[in-house]
């Protein structure tokens, strides 16, 4: 009867996936706060709503936000704040949220 206490064997692919998940910044928590707010160039938040200062990664997401949160005000994409244009570029730092950016 050798089936009950058999230790589970992990594959190399499963171990590599666990290491990747533990070492790659996915943008959550306090570590990804600057990434979400767009404080650094390369962050996910590119546009900022002029009415409520909520950030979004692209124009389509901002339009969805605007239609849901500000239905009485007409949407004007020329009033949106581009956070990537206002922040200086620092090429020495790796881009946050890019899969495998911290691997050697």
UniProtKB/TrEMBL annotation:
GO CC terms of this entry: cytoplasm; nucleus
Region named Disordered: 1-46
Superkingdom of origin: Eukaryota
Alphabetical keyword list: Cytoplasm, Nucleus
Main location group: cytoplasm
Residue spans crossing the bilayer: none
Compartments, record wording: Cytoplasm; Nucleus
InterPro entries noted in UniProt: MBS1/2-like
Ranges of compositional bias, category Basic residues: 1-11
Keyword Ribonucleoprotein belongs to the record: no
Composition bias, Basic and acidic residues: 37-46
Protein known as: Uncharacterized protein
